[in-house]
Amino acid sequence: MGEQAWLPVLSSGGPCRVLLMPWRWVPPPGHSELHTAHGRMVLRPSTCLLLKRREVAEVERALRRQREVRFRQRMERLAQRRQQLDQREQRLRDVGLNFTAFLQASAVRQERALQRAAEARAQVAEQDAEAARLHQQLAGLQQHRDRLAQRLRSLHPAASEPPLAAQFQDVRSMLAHFEALLAMRAALVQEAEAGQERLVQGWARLRGYREETLGELLCIASERAQLHACLEAAHREVLQGESCWAHAQSTATEKTLLLAQLKLAVLNLFHLATAPLKVHADTALEDTEQQMDTVSAASPLGRGTRGRSCPRMAVASGSHLQVLLCMQDLAAICAELRPRQPGPCPAATSVHHRGATEP
Questions:
Q1: What residues contact residue 263 under an 8 Å CB cut-off, 6+ apart?
Q2: Which of 30-34, 145-149, 225-229 has the lowest mean pLDDT?
Q3: What is the SS3 assignment for 304?
Q4: Are the beta carbons of 333 and 292 closer than 8 angstroms?
Q5: 348 vs 266: CA distance, rounded Å
Q6: How far is CA 330 from the centre of its chain?
Q7: What's a GO cellular component annotated to this UniProt protein (predicted)?
């Protein structure tokens, strides 16, 4: 038991070996006796148990130290791994940012390239259109040149002929040719003067036509102004007629209301005059003149009542006097309502005739 030994142990981290240090047994106090058997020293069971417990405690301490060492190593490796992962993540983030910037730059470059391509296509289209226009203009100029050349050949046949030195052999033929050219020039000048004169005459006729047209336009404008003035006058007359018609309607309405009030007043006077006398007259409600005649006849101050004495009339003499005055006022109002009719109102005439005997 005094030698070193390795003890295999199975732990949670895997199989491992524990180094057992040599030990020396020290007897516990109070146990100095040893049992011997067959000449060998034999320990007691309690001592063996204590020894085993000590060995187990040492093994556990060794395992704990080994686990702590492994845990520290593992934590260090994890810290290194985490640091590496952080560095890798930072590199990946940088790569992602660089790639995003690259994509943005690529998109910008692509957009610029597309814009330049569109501008180039538009410029090419403009150049093609300009080239086509120039080709058409060139063709038109060539045709115009051909027409001018034909006109020149038709006007001056000598332009297409060989030079005079090769055409004429002597001076006389040359002079004759010049005389012919002078005659042709005189004819052309005369024709040009005739054309100029015709042009002047045409301009004169055009000015005459313009003056005539201007005069007609002025006449039409004056007629239009007169018609517009007539239209405005007619419009004013229509407005005046409408205002007169409205005034006549309002006046007729007022007269109608006043006539209705007069009829109502006459009806009230009729009832007031005939009620105290208990006169039963068959008079229609719409017959205002008959009602006024009835009131005048029923009055004690009227015609045919002089020299008579009636107790009822004596009692109602004051009220009938008021009725007679009201009848006179109504007759005056009727005269105002009908000023165009000759003579006084019939009711007023009857009132005056019947009221001639008033004291």
A1: 286, 288
A2: 30-34
A3: coil
A4: no
A5: 12
A6: 69
A7: cytoskeleton
347 pLDDT tier (thresholds 50, 70, 90): very low
Share of the chain above pLDDT 70, in %: 63
Biggest distance spanned by C-alpha atoms of the chain: 201
Contact 338, 354 (CB under 8 A): no
Q: How many CB atoms lie within 10 A of CB 299?
A: 25
Domain locations along the chain: 256-354
Q: What is the DSSP annotation of 202-248?
A: HHHHHHHHHHHHHHHHHHHHHHHHHHHHHHHHHHHHHHHHHHHHHHH
Q: Residue 88: beta bridge partners?
A: none
Entry pTM: 0.30
Q: Which long-range contacts (CB under 8 A, 24 or more apart) does 276-279 make?
A: 276/312, 276/315, 276/316, 276/319, 277/312, 277/313, 277/316
> Tokens 């309690």 correspond to what residue?
46
Q: Are 9 and 18 in contact (CB under 8 A)?
A: yes
